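Before our next group meeting I need something from you. Please put the record directly below this note.
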Amino acid sequence: MPVPSASKFLVLTANLSFSLHWQPDNRHIMLPFALALLLVCGAAQVPQSPSPCPIVFTNDSSVGPDGPWWYILQGVDWPPKPMKMIPTQAEISMIVNKSACDLHDNCPSSDDLWEPTSDSWRINNGSEKASADVGASAAGPEASELLGLEGSGQYIMNRMTIYRGADANGKTQVNNLDKSAIILSNNYSITYPGGASYTLSIGFFSLSSLSENITWTAQNGKSMTAMKILPRAYHNGFIPSESYSLHVGSVFPNITGSLILGGYDKSRCLGEPIVTQGDSFMLTDIGLNVSSGDSVFKGLPSGTQNGLLRSSDSNNTAMSIGVGSGFPYLYLPRSTCDAIAEYLPVTYNEDFDLYFWNTDDEAFEQIVTSPHHLTFTFNDNNLAPQTIKVPFALLNLTLDQPLTDSPTPYFPCRPTKVVEGGIEPRLGRAFLQAAFMAKKGNTKFLAQAPGPAFDGESVENIFPDTDDLEPTDGAASWEDTWKGHLKDVTSKAGSNGTEVGGTSDPQSSESSDNGISGGAIAGIVVGVIVGVALVLGLILWQVRRRKKSHSTDEQQQQQQSPGEEEPKTVYAHYATPDGPHSPPQYNYSIGHDNGQKPVQEIHEAEATSPEPVEMDANQDPKELPAEEARDPVR
């Protein structure tokens, strides 16, 4: 069992306090101070016993001109300087010197970068203990080839502050890891084949534990040795083993990441993990599939295609493949990337050695918002093969400034030359958005991770003798964790032999391939019923109208004098409905539609004499009474 070095720190602090201040005249003052200092330091740094250490991913901002990606925020130096970092399996952690971005205009951000100016750095002669410049290979043998990393940095020794259960801005328990091995990036940059590049502004948080120490020659000629973060945390008694678990999550759609030192979150492990010894897994196949709804894969109406894992010398093959979060893409043989791209609306771009999504193609949006996904099948020590699903919703990433002038969606398959004894293919961060990974010593675990609707956190220990990990107790399937976020495609006949259409909620998109659907039948029945009701209503209305008209005629005939004519119904004519001569607003009889029959009818008045009579010219003209001068039409 490792002895917590923090206890030595407490003893040293107490001895120092008493030796400096324990005088007869101030004992009553310094004794409470020393005891308080011991209590504060003990409570802040050391848990009561080794326990899993959750490290929180941010979920309110993201990083990366090739992402976006979530990151963690950890402290470096003393007082601790919060630094943005991405978890990685690299041999050593990396921080970025502020001068790297001050001197380059292609740095995405200069926020939260470190400067070698603190008092503790000067007091500890940090610059003298730093190494001479080292190249990109110091970050790992694959960094220069897979990342395209260039530039220089230095090995340094400094304090790393681990925040348990919160980031550097939260109030939580901390673990101080003194004399941690770190690479300081002075101008590391990532360059693409076409010449586009950017200067690193995000650090790397190393999860490596294969060897505990890093050794280098300092500028003063002395040999310096510093310990890696994970072994240091274990030897200080902070975590139960040199182990970790990781699910990097996703920015779009929002899946908060999970990183736990010395333990794992069962809710991120949906099934029995695939187990391997060493850093590589045996990948046996890659395929395409659609969990529900219709397929919009090009030329693939069935939605299923296996056998896409290919190498340059064979159509179908199995290969050893690494899995890690330090690299962003799916690094696969070109023949494999091309085989996948054949069914997608993408175009290969040689300047970035990536595949750009054709966003004008209707199938693009349908594929990245529906249950279309890639399947990765692994051999589990000669047991039944296990498959991990990665929805295309997580494979719609974006290149942005300073790499491109405007956001450019891309499919993250990077063609990689597979050479015997050389760099092996690798599944990077893009894959770990949908996969759970854990490691203890030389044993590595890999399992399906959930979508956005995962269960609540359930943290378990990983002890030195742990051989397997238990999956989540929840009954939710992978498909269940994506409900409400991925919607089925409802197809209609499209061009080029491809079925295209809109998307619908899987719970309301039941369809049938044999005849008319149930929804269509229900609509027809309702339409027929409404039509019959309208016809019957019209017939009844006509009958009632005729009866009423006949009754009115009889009453009028009884009231009329012999020789009088029947009154005529007259409807006025107006210019426009809203003009100055608009018709009056009538109230309409119940049972009549607007415009059918007003409550009061307008009648034409009868003349008092059936024949016109000429007035006597000798008579003086007279003004008619007001009542007789009215317009006869009212």
Notes: Residues 248-510 form a domain with the Cathepsin D, subunit A; domain 1 fold (CATH 2.40.70.10). The radius of gyration is 40 Å. Residues 518-559 form the longest helix (42 residues). Residues 574 and 581 are 6 Å apart (CA to CA).
